[in-house]
Design brief:
It contains five helices and five strands; from the N terminus they run βββααβαβαα. It is an alpha/beta fold. The chain has a single domain, classed as Nucleotidyltransferase, domain 5 (2-Layer Sandwich), CATH 3.30.420.140. A five-stranded mixed β-sheet has the order 3-2-1-4-5, with helices on both faces. α3 links the parallel β4 and β5. The longest helix has 21 residues. It is globular.
């Protein structure tokens, strides 16, 4: 088996960035934090202490399927831009993973724990990042 890799996953949104961590040995993602802010650069800079603490070898980033919807096209372009910037700033490879339905899955997990609506704020993004990471870990 290849060396164990620590992987950090992101669920990128305009308002929030969900972050999760996992590794290729145990293959169980764990939520870390939700970073709030509208500026992409603010989110990228807020990652610095988290990346220093966890020292991931690789980034995994959720990407929705292509669409003709102008808002979704803009989000996809923003996510691609985010990927390029974090790859360059933190010198890590970024792998894109389909994120369709990850927020819905995260919401249903929270509902099962009797956490509804506004109480899901922040937790939802972290669990969506966990779903993104689980997708990647299941594929390798």
């Amino acid at each position: 088996m290849p060396n164990e890799l620590t992987i950090m996953a992101f669920d990128y949104g305009d308002a929030r960035l969900g972050v999760a961590i996992g590794n290729t040995l145990i293959k169980i993602p764990h939520p870390i934090i939700t970073i709030e802010g509208e500026s992409m650069w603010a989110k990228i800079d807020a990652l610095e202490p988290i990346i220093k603490e966890w020292m991931p070898n690789l980034f995994v980033l959720g990407m929705p399927h292509e669409s003709n919807n102008p808002q979704k096209i803009q989000l996809i372009n923003t996510i691609k831009n985010f990927a390029k910037r974090i790859s360059k700033k933190y010198n890590r490879e970024v792998i894109m993973v389909n994120e369709d339905f990850t927020s819905m899955h995260a919401s249903s997990l929270l509902n099962e724990q009797n956490i509804y609506a506004r109480k899901q704020h922040g937790k939802l993004d972290q669990l969506a990042a966990c779903s993104i990471l689980q997708t990647y870990l299941s594929e390798i």
